[in-house]
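Sample pair:
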Amino acid sequence: MKRLLEILKDAKNGDNDAKEILYVKFKPTINYYSKKLYYEEAHTDQDKPFTSRKKSIFKIKKRIGGKLLIWTSIYMN
């Protein structure tokens, strides 16, 4: 997990190698954590309507080089 966070930080700072590593090596891990975060937010934040919670997770997705990578900003704010 620590290595993943280091790579996320590099990718956020524009490191193309880190972006490629994210896509190829860590994509299943990233998908797992994004689903887990989505599940936790959807089931703990009951003050907002469901659709706004859904948007708040998925609007953080970024398209890099035509490939969709799940969030870099959730952990790296």
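The mean pLDDT is 54.
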